[in-house]
Amino acid sequence: MKKILIIDDDPTIRKYLTNLFKDNGYAPTVAENAGQAWDLLSADSFDLITLDLDMPGEWGTRFFSKLDQDKDKKNIPVIVISGMSDNEYAIPKAVASLTKPFDQKKLLKIVRDVLK
Known about the structure:
Blueprint: E1 3-7, H1 11-23, E2 27-31, H2 34-43, E3 48-51, H3 60-68, E4 78-82, E5 96-99, H4 104-114
Parallel strand pairs: 1-2, 1-3, 3-4, 4-5
C-alpha cells in the first residue's frame, strides 16, 4: 500500500484528505506542521507528500527547500495543495499544484499517475 504524508495546518483539510486517500486504497499519515513532518520523514518512508504552503512556523516553500537538499528524501514527489493564489510558482519542482478548494477527482488522478 502506497504511503502518503499529508502536511497541512487545517484540521478539516487533514481529515478530508485522510478519508479521501484511505477510501482510495492509500495509507495516509498527517502532520500539522513542518516540524512534525520532519519527525515522520525521519521515522518512516513515504511514496508521496501533499504540502500546504501557508502554515504557522515554517512555510511549505522552506520545508520543500530542505526536502530537496536531502539526498534520501529529495525524490519523494510533492503535490502542493494551498489556498494561496499563484501557488504553482512557489515550488516549480512540485509534480502538481492545486488551489483550495480543489477538485478531488483531479487530485486522485494526479496521485494515481504519480504512484503507478
